[in-house]
Design brief:
single chain, alpha+beta, 5-stranded antiparallel sheet
Length: 714
């Protein structure tokens, strides 16, 4: 049973106002038990309130009255002026309701009152009144001092059905087919799709349903919606309709084509064919245009959804590419990775050319890496992109490198080339070939340029890392002897493994200096820290020891002078040093011996490997150099007999870790016991291998091993 319900509301000139107006109508109809008129009422109040917001530009008053006979809705703007000519009002039979202007508004919202054309001007923008005339049981307009109003009334559902007869009074559109009855829901579908159904239907299904309703209303024999998404695939049939009464042959009548106003690069059109022997109706363009606008909303929503999906995919792709590229500090690996990322995501093939230098000093592009979706075509692609390949392509790439701008590639290898540049320096070019079935879109090129920027930065970082690594290696080699002495009666062997960083000079060093024919200075040490400062201190330690040893000073005096030198330099670096003066002699029995005078300045004791396989740590530890003004150092003297060896190492050996376990001196001595009879070089190499293999991790500290051995010869 229906109940009497009355609500009033003022809404601002805002694009959210039509939704608020629809919500008000829903509430009143639900409270009054008039859900039978819901669809038509929502459609009409939406159209009229939208017109008020868009054209009048003023606040809009909504008044809704539901009673046992139906629902009356009044929409008023706040702009005075004449009513536009066009569609006349249609009163209730035998009655012209006198509209009472809305005086008291229960809810008032401040509104923008800028000047605009009236909501109710009909000739160009009269579709709101056109729908009111078709769906309402009765409607009318009125003026009041503060503006103008349009009211409409809807009776029971059976009274709203429209009989589109030519003689209908006040109708703006003639009947599509004389005598046919068109339900109000079909008209409503032209401009308003029920929200529940709209959410359930896909874009093609929704457009197809809109096309079907349009053809039913107009009486068209066939209808087609064409869509071109702006790629090379061209126009495709999105939706179609064919009347059940139509025979197998297509209609020959003149067609009506209406553009569907979708955003570029997409293009769409709506085509209607009248029945055979007829032509488009007088109001077909108006109805088709109205349907085309509603189709455009759905198509544009799908386009935006597609673009958003592509955009998210592009962002995910670029994020993954950035992570992979950032983890590579190797130049060759970075160059090989870039084409693998681009293919097939951005094209059929991809090539990276890097800038090289000719012998004459001029720069040229050299093919560094290439990828293709079809590996069988990889060789041919490499030949075309190489130095002796396509000259036109080479010229186009040279142009990209010279201008630093993206350029198209033409010919058999069609695609796009973008420059590779980072920190104001040109590195090369990145070329991507187009897919066989589509051109590169603007979005594709934007993603490609973004990938090129990230690849350029990764390549520049890798090149800088390689240069720093090379400098560190060169400096490290300068602090180590290029070769060890090769003499009769004494063997020297050494191994050095830098820490895993590879870009900083380590503080570990070793040295063997020949003082005279049968005398040598053997030293090994570790300067605290890494980098250029540690390298500078290492050079000082090595050079001072060499200079003082050449003056035939004793080891305690050499190390004491070194300590004063480092303290005078006021550096925060100190060093541990193990130094030995080695003299070769023959015993009275003719046995060759190596007399060793050993001093330890804070360094680990070396291990003595005897000929019978036993081991012992020798020497007495003193004060590290460059640490304290009071320096202490004690000499230890012993001889190496035939087959015996003295093994020095830095803490990178003994302190290498496997989890919580350290390599330690005991493990070192155990390894040395199995190396009796091996040459000094072999002993050093085997110790290095065993220490490195102790842990799967790369060394965190430099590893230095120095071996002095007395060969087992008489």
């Amino acid at each position: 049973m229906s109940r009497h319900t009355h609500r009033r509301l003022r809404l601002p000139a805002d694009d959210r106002s039509p939704a608020a107006a629809r919500a008000l109508v829903r509430q009143v109809l639900a409270a009054g038990g008039r859900s039978d008129a819901l669809d038509s009422a929502l459609l009409l109040v939406s159209e009229l309130s939208t017109n008020g917001v868009v054209h009048a530009g003023t606040a809009v008053d909504i008044e809704v009255l539901a009673d046992e006979h139906g629902i009356t809705v009044t929409v008023s703007d706040q702009q005075s002026g004449p009513m536009g000519a066009g569609v006349g009002s249609r009163p209730l039979p035998g009655e012209m309701p006198a509209h009472s202007p809305v005086a008291e508004i229960s809810t008032t919202v401040a509104a923008d009152t800028h000047s605009a054309d009236s909501v109710f001007d009909v000739p160009e923008r009269g579709r709101g009144l056109f729908l009111v005339d078709q769906l309402a049981t009765a409607w009318g307009t009125s003026h009041h001092p503060g503006g103008k109003s349009v009211w409409f009334r809807l009776g029971p559902a059976e009274d709203v059905a429209l009989t589109m007869a030519p003689e209908t009074q006040g109708r703006a559109v003639p009947a599509p087919a004389a005598g046919d009855e068109v339900p109000a829901s079909a008209w409503a579908w032209l401009v308003h799709v029920p929200e529940g159904l709209r959410d359930r239907l896909s874009m093609p299904a929704l457009v197809s349903e809109l096309l079907t309703r349009l053809c039913e209303v107009t009486g068209a024999a066939t209808g087609t919606v064409w869509l071109d998404q702006g790629d090379e695939r061209g126009r495709a049939r999105l939706a179609g309709y064919r009347s059940a009464e139509l025979g197998p042959s297509a209609p020959r009548a003149r067609a009506l084509t209406v553009p569907v106003p979708v955003a570029r690069p997409w293009q769409a059109s709506l085509v209607l064919h009248p029945p055979a022997g007829g032509g488009p109706g007088k109001y077909w363009p108006e109805l088709a245009g109205l349907s085309a606008q509603r189709m455009a909303i759905s198509i544009d929503a799908e386009r935006l959804h597609t673009e958003e999906r592509r955009r998210r995919g592009a962002l995910a792709f670029l994020a993954e590419a950035s992570e992979l590229l950032a983890n590579s500090l190797d130049v060759d690996l970075t160059l090989a990775l870039v084409p693998q990322l681009a293919v097939p995501r951005l094209g059929q093939w991809c090539a990276v050319h890097v800038l090289g230098t000719r012998s004459a000093g001029a720069q040229d592009l050299r093919l560094a890496s290439v990828a293709h979706v079809d590996e069988e075509q990889l060789t041919a692609l490499q030949n075309a992109l190489g130095a002796d390949g396509d000259r036109d392509l080479a010229a186009r790439l040279a142009e990209v490198a010279a201008t630093g701008e993206t350029n198209a590639l033409v010919g058999p290898l069609e695609g796009v080339a973008v420059p590779l540049a980072a920190r104001g320096r040109l590195l090369g070019t990145l070329s991507v070939g187009r897919q066989p079935d589509r051109m590169h879109t603007g979005e594709d090129i934007a993603v490609l340029e973004d990938l090129a920027r990230r690849a350029s930065l990764a390549l520049d970082n890798a090149q800088a890392h390689a240069e720093r690594n090379q400098i560190a290696q060169d400096l490290q080699r300068a602090l180590l002897p290029t070769e060890l002495p090769v003499v009769a009666g004494a063997e020297f062997g050494a191994e050095y493994v830098p820490a895993s960083s590879g870009v900083e000079v380590g503080g570990d060093f070793y040295d063997v200096l020949t003082l005279r024919r049968n005398r040598w200075l053997v030293s090994i040490g570790d300067v605290c820290g890494k980098g250029t400062q540690a390298a500078a201190v290492t050079g000082v330690v090595r050079d001072v020891m060499r200079a003082l040893a050449a003056e035939n000073r004793t080891l305690p005096r050499i190390l004491s002078s070194l300590n004063r030198t480092l303290l005078a330099a006021q550096t925060d670096r100190y060093a541990t040093v193990a130094a030995a003066l080695v003299t070769r002699r023959e015993s009275p029995g003719g046995e060759r011996l190596l007399d060793v005078t050993l001093c330890l300045a804070g360094h680990d004791r070396p291990v003595l490997l005897r000929a019978d396989g036993t081991t012992a740590s020798v020497g007495e530890c003193g004060t590290a150099v460059g640490l304290l003004t009071e320096f202490e150092c004690t000499e230890t003297r012993f001889s190496l007999g035939p087959g015996e060896a003295l093994v020095f190492c830095t803490d990178g050996v003994t302190e290498r870790r496997h989890g919580k376990e350290m390599y330690g001196t005991r493990r070192l001595r155990r390894v040395l016991r199995g190396l009796v009879g091996h040459s000094a070089a072999s002993v050093a190499a085997r110790v290095r291998e065993n220490v490195v293999a102790f842990s799967a991790e790369a060394p965190r500290d430099d590893i230095a091993v120095l071996v002095l051995r007395n060969p087992a010869t008489r």
